[in-house]
UniProtKB/TrEMBL annotation:
Boundaries of every Transketolase-like pyrimidine-binding domain copy: 6-181
EC supergroup of this enzyme: oxidoreductase
Span of the signal peptide: none
Catalytic activity: N(6)-[(R)-lipoyl]-L-lysyl-[protein] + 3-methyl-2-oxobutanoate + H(+) = N(6)-[(R)-S(8)-2-methylpropanoyldihydrolipoyl]-L-lysyl-[protein] + CO2
Species this chain originates from: Zapornia atra
PANTHER family, alphabetized: 2-OXOISOVALERATE DEHYDROGENASE SUBUNIT BETA, MITOCHONDRIAL, 2-OXOISOVALERATE DEHYDROGENASE SUBUNIT BETA-RELATED
Coiled-coil annotated residue ranges, if any: none
Keyword terms: Oxidoreductase
UniProt-recorded name of the protein: 3-methyl-2-oxobutanoate dehydrogenase (2-methylpropanoyl-transferring)
């Protein structure tokens, strides 16, 4: 279908636009999302879909996720934004003790599988301690949630739409250093990239290198250096989904 040149934040906007258009129950909420957000990922969506579907919340991450759980349990497709991944920790209890366990706790009578939590992730070189963290490891030991981190605009849109449609609560971390740095031709229409499916970006015979998000680009450079300087053939794998991760592809 039709493609358009997009950077990573524009591909996120496109995915959110597709989700709101397709699903009348879908709502987006968080700090400052109504005017487009700090990184402009929700720009224009309130004007297009109205203030009942794209709206600001108080500065309270625990409340944002708690509200998202309630909205999802009540039948809405809830898309919550935590303004920076570093500030997801006040919501840790809501994510790990409530969202992840809701289906199990209720004996599958209720669930909040329609909840997706988005957050800008990782360092940019000048963010200092509260705007540079990569907190996925804290959540990677918690059954009941999925964690996804894309490496590029094309990946971001397809993976985010898969998270939004997945029937489990998902955390979608967006590498903020790539928001404007990475540009690709991205389909305008919605499409999906399967979750929990790693991608082999480069085959090799000596050593396997596994990465996700921004580090995929670093590790591709490392693989090229290893080949050139040491004659070492590296297989490069983008994990994409951190939980549940694709053990089969990596082990193979």
């Amino acid at each position: 279908g039709q493609t358009q040149k997009m950077n990573l934040f524009q591909s996120i906007t496109s995915a959110l636009d597709n989700a709101l258009a397709k699903d009348p129950t879908a709502v987006i909420f968080g700090e400052d999302v109504a005017f487009g957000g700090v990184f402009r990922c929700t720009v224009g969506l309130r004007d297009k879909y109205g203030k009942d579907r794209v709206f600001n919340t108080p500065l309270c991450e625990q409340g944002i996720v708690g509200f998202g759980i309630g909205a999802a349990v009540a039948g809405a497709t809830a898309i919550a934004e935590i303004q920076f991944a570093d500030y997801i920790f006040p919501a840790f209890d809501q994510i790990v003790n409530e969202a992840a366990k809701y289906r199990y706790r209720s004996g599958d009578l209720f669930n909040c599988g329609n909840l997706t939590i988005r957050a800008p992730w990782g360092c940019v070189g000048h963010g200092a301690l509260y705007h540079s963290q990569s907190p996925e490891a804290f959540f990677a030991h918690c059954p009941g949630i999925k964690i996804v981190i894309p490496r590029s605009p094309l990946q971001a849109k397809g993976l985010l739409l898969s998270c939004i449609e997945d029937k489990n609560p998902c955390i979608f971390f967006e590498p903020k250093i790539l928001y404007r740095a990475a540009v690709e031709q991205v389909p305008v229409e919605p499409y999906n990239i399967p979750l929990s499916q790693a991608e082999v970006l480069q085959t090799g015979s000596d050593v396997t290198l596994v990465a996700w998000g921004t580090q995929v680009h670093v590790i591709k450079e490392v693989a090229a250096m290893a080949q050139e300087k040491l004659g070492v053939s590296c297989e490069v794998i983008d994990l994409r989904t951190i939980l549940p991760w694709d053990t089969e592809t990596v082990c193979k």
